[in-house]
From TrEMBL:
The keyword Isomerase is annotated on this UniProt entry: no
A GO molecular-function descriptor: glutathione transferase activity
Keyword terms: Transferase
Biological source species: Dimocarpus longan
Occurrences of domain GST N-terminal (ranges): 1-80
Protein name (database record): Glutathione transferase
Record field: transmembrane: none
């Protein structure tokens, strides 16, 4: 089992915590989104959203944090001989969904000085365009990612979005 993540990613931390709590062995691969490693063609083929974390168990690949956590729980219950191992209650799952609905991206980006945020944004867009040229078969997925980057920049200009986050 492999976990592709970044140590500072909140969603990655949730998954790593679950893996450790359940005692599941995994191989850790650090993917740094600041240096646009999540846009590399090999990673992008596996996960066209380029979001972290990504959990891979053989050919089974999961991108959604809650889905990863629930998959890990199923692995732990099935592989455990202990009778006290249980799945998360419905209430816990509901809270996970409530927490997951909050997008920390806007919160994080608003706390980065504007000149650095602009530099990172331009760098990421350039990387996406370069990767699009390298892998034309992924051009549509890269184009969606580029469009999302522009939409994020526009949303950061909206004081309501910033206040809500």
């Amino acid at each position: 089992m492999q976990l592709y993540h970044h140590p500072f990613s909140l969603d990655s931390q949730k998954v790593r915590l679950t893996l450790e709590e359940k005692g599941i062995d995994y191989t850790s691969f650090h993917v740094n989104p600041i240096t646009a490693k999540n846009m590399d063609c090999s990673f992008f083929r596996m996960n066209p959203s380029a979001r972290l974390p990504v959990f891979q168990n053989g050919a089974h690949i999961i991108f959604n944090t809650i889905d990863i956590i629930q998959y890990i729980e199923r692995i732990a219950v099935v592989s455990s001989a202990a009778d006290d191992m249980t799945f998360s209650s419905r209430e816990v799952v509901e809270w996970m969904h409530k927490i997951q609905d909050w997008n920390p991206k806007f919160f994080t980006l608003t706390h980065i000085p504007a000149k650095y945020r602009l530099y990172i944004s331009k760098f990421t867009r350039r990387v996406v365009i370069a990767r699009m040229a390298e892998s034309p078969e992924l051009a549509n997925a890269y184009h969606r990612k580029l469009k999302a980057a522009y939409e994020t920049e526009d949303k950061l200009k909206n004081p309501d979005v910033v206040k809500r986050s």
